[in-house]
TrEMBL record:
<dbReference type="InterPro" id="IPR027417">
    <property type="entry name" value="P-loop_NTPase"/>
</dbReference>
<dbReference type="Pfam" id="PF00005">
    <property type="entry name" value="ABC_tran"/>
</dbReference>
<keyword id="KW-0813">Transport</keyword>
<keyword id="KW-0067">ATP-binding</keyword>
<keyword id="KW-0547">Nucleotide-binding</keyword>
<dbReference type="InterPro" id="IPR003439">
    <property type="entry name" value="ABC_transporter-like_ATP-bd"/>
</dbReference>
<feature type="domain" description="ABC transporter">
    <location>
        <begin position="7"/>
        <end position="231"/>
    </location>
</feature>
<protein>
    <submittedName>
        <fullName>ABC transporter ATP-binding protein</fullName>
    </submittedName>
</protein>
<dbReference type="GO" id="GO:0005524">
    <property type="term" value="F:ATP binding"/>
</dbReference>
<dbReference type="InterPro" id="IPR003593">
    <property type="entry name" value="AAA+_ATPase"/>
</dbReference>
<dbReference type="InterPro" id="IPR051782">
    <property type="entry name" value="ABC_Transporter_VariousFunc"/>
</dbReference>
Length: 287
């Protein structure tokens, strides 16, 4: 099967003054995939997205979106970006925001944008400044999807939402991906928020992509070693990523093929995706 990569970074580096945020950052995102971009606070998720849409310029490396090098000519027509701060005009009504979307985009689906606003229970006569943060997110999402993008980048889209709204937005995104083949990248510092929506994971740590692949595959490539002793475990298959021990048991997340049996004093268990992500976010990087 021919791969169709819609967003790629190759050895991208970006620093602010002396702080290196991205360094040797490489990945490729395929058309139609839904990717969770996960990293701790300050890991560089927003920086990565700003680079992808051309709001920032990399110090080195290559970035391509929809077959073109990312330039300074404004956001590519096939791309939508929902920033963390959801810039809407506070004095506009929702109807005026939708009209703004219509007037500023060559490709614009008015019916779809209006349907998304109405599904969120938001009156089009309401002023943006009077909306709750969750409703603002829903309006910003309607504006982003009204462009009918091929690639949609969402920076922490679910952070301001209550659980019901979170589920509604997750459904909207999944439906958009399934029906229109939209490629979606959404960031969070907690994967559990995204695990129902995303099929792939990019884990950003120390400026690089540390995990990249299908969520199920990544999970299956790890296992837990659980023991009741203080002793360091001996691992026959793979490498210990981290110690997630609780008070009563020693628990180690191991990257490798799950062995049939463990050594005396230890048992082997399946890792969850949360175990794996937390382990990788928490590990000190080996030199
Ligand atoms: N314009 C800027 N000037 C200087 N430093 C910046 C700038 N933008 C980001 N940084 C720094 O770069 C680092 C990465 O920031 P970024 O916002 O990309 O992280 P993030 O993963 O999105 O974090 P969060 O989850 O907190 O939103 C942070 O240390 C931040 O302070």
């Amino acid at each position: 099967m021919m791969t169709d990569e819609v967003l790629t970074m190759d050895e991208v580096a970006k620093s602010f003054r002396r702080k290196t945020v991205l360094d040797h950052c490489s990945f490729a995102i395929e058309r139609g995939s839904v990717t969770a971009l996960v990293g701790s606070n300050g890991a560089g998720k927003s920086t990565l997205m700003s680079l992808a849409v051309g709001l920032l310029t990399p110090d080195s490396g290559n970035i391509r979106v929809l077959g073109e090098a990312v330039g300074q000519r404004g956001i590519a027509p096939g791309l939508s970006y929902l920033t963390q701060h959801k810039p809407l005009y506070p004095h506009f009504t929702v109807a005026e925001m939708l009209r703004f979307g219509r007037n500023t985009n060559a490709h614009w689906d008015d019916a779809y944008a209006a349907e998304l606003v109405s599904a969120a229970g938001i009156a089009v006569s309401a002023r943006v400044k009077s909306l709750s943060p969750g409703h603002r997110t829903r309006v910003a999402l309607a504006l982003a999807l009204g462009r009918r993008p091929e690639v949609l980048l969402l920076d922490e889209p679910l952070a301001d939402l209550d659980p019901v709204a979170r589920r509604a937005v997750a459904r909207t995104l999944m439906r958009d991906a399934a029906e229109n083949g939209t490629t979606i990248v959404l960031s969070s510092h907690v994967l559990s928020e995204l695990v129902d929506v995303a099929d792939r994971l990019l884990l950003l740590r120390d400026g690089r992509i540390r995990l990249d692949g299908e969520l199920d595959t990544i999970t299956a490539e790890h296992y837990l070693l659980v023991g009741s002793t203080d002793a360091e475990p001996t691992v026959d298959n793979g490498t210990i990523i981290s110690d997630v021990s609780g008070s009563s048991a020693a628990v180690f997340v191991v990257h490798g093929t799950r062995p049939e049996t463990a050594r005396p004093g230890w048992t082997v268990e399946d890792a969850t995706v949360d175990d794996v992500v937390l382990a990788h976010l928490g590990t000190e990087v080996a030199a």
